[in-house]
Write a structure and sequence with these properties.
This protein is mostly helical. The protein has 9 helices and no strands. The protein has a single domain, classed as ABC transporter transmembrane region fold (Up-down Bundle).
């Protein structure tokens, strides 16, 4: 047994007394992580708070230090900035390692559990339904994606929400007029995403079904493959291209909205600076703030998508389990 395995020993997940699947994907998340999920979320919020501190330091360096030309104060702010950045990176590293441990613990337990169920069913009446092709797909890529959601998605969403709320609150406290004008470009993102995501979810469910069918076809092959391959390959290609078309259309629209926010800060904020109604440091801080919230906005949209995909993945694995668990 390797040293790394002993250090990062998989979490012991207590048995529930039966082999049925969790009632929902969120029940599965809690079962695989328990209170560790709460700890991961709290650490993620702490990482987010440290990520926000440089915004105010940038504003004060421009407004208080550069204008006064106080070298001693500049060095103090510089050391404070460096300290915050180092602490942020250390805490982020710790969070990533913690999330990775939760992911691999989920992978380890779920794969052992599903393989045990399949092994007990080999040769049974449901053996055709739970053939080797499906098992390879489920225990491999499907469990991997579901475990990734369990370990990272919720705590990362907490961090993104904390960053988003923190930056928005800061903007309204410092300069409400610019904040209100700029944040208006976020509204279309909130409206657009759910409509596009419903169709993406349908395509994800079909793709998983197609890949399982492909696994069955491979495991049952006993003759050379014909020119062009099995018809299921054409369905997989068509499904994937439809998914990419919708996904990248949504991404392009969101990126456009994110770019318009900083542009509005430069134009409207620049006008206020010319009128003497605000300071240059405010514009610098707001641009930096938008750089910090553009990522969380994209990731929160991604969280909505990944959560729905994880729900589909969990439900399909649960259906497979229902076929192989003895009644």
């Amino acid at each position: 047994m390797s040293l790394l395995f002993r250090i990062f020993h998989p979490r012991d997940v207590p048995r529930t007394g039966d082999d049925t699947a969790a009632s929902s994907v969120w029940g599965f998340v809690w079962r695989m992580t328990g209170w560790h999920q709460v700890v991961a979320c709290l650490i993620a919020v702490g990482v987010a708070v440290l990520n926000l501190a440089p915004i105010e330091l940038q504003r004060r360096i421009v407004n208080e230090v550069v204008e006064t030309q106080n070298v001693a104060l500049l060095l103090q702010f510089g050391m404070a900035y460096l300290t915050v950045v180092v602490l942020h990176q250390l805490s982020k590293f710790g969070l990533r390692m913690y999330q990775g441990w939760l992911i691999e613990s989920t992978n380890n337990y779920t794969r052992r559990h599903l393989l045990r169920l399949y092994g007990a069913n080999v040769g049974g009446e449901d053996d055709t339904e739970s053939g080797a092709g499906k098992v390879v797909s489920i225990v491999g890529s499907e469990v991997e994606k579901l475990a990734g959601f369990v370990g990272e998605a919720l705590s990362q969403a907490c961090a993104n929400v904390a960053i988003l709320l923190g930056v928005i609150t800061y903007m309204f406290v410092v300069e409400p007029a610019i904040a209100l004008f700029a944040l208006a470009f976020m509204v279309p993102q909130i409206v657009l995403t759910p409509f596009m995501q419903r169709r993406l979810n349908e395509l994800v469910e079909k793709r998983v079904s197609y890949l399982r069918s492909l696994g069955d076809h491979i495991s049952e092959m006993d003759t050379p493959m014909q020119e062009g391959g099995p018809p299921i390959l054409a369905k997989i290609l068509s499904n994937r291209m439809k998914f990419n078309l919708l996904k990248f259309t949504l991404k392009a629209a969101l990126n456009l909205m994110n770019a318009l926010g900083p542009l509005s800060v430069l134009i409207y904020g620049g006008y206020l600076v010319m009128q003497g109604e605000t300071q240059v440091g405010v514009i610098v801080a707001f641009i930096s703030g938008f750089e910090r919230i553009s990522g969380p906005v994209r990731e929160l949209v991604g969280f909505y998508r990944v959560a729905e995909q994880a729900r589909v993945q969990h439900d399909m694995i649960a259906k497979w389990m229902a076929k192989v668990v003895p009644s």
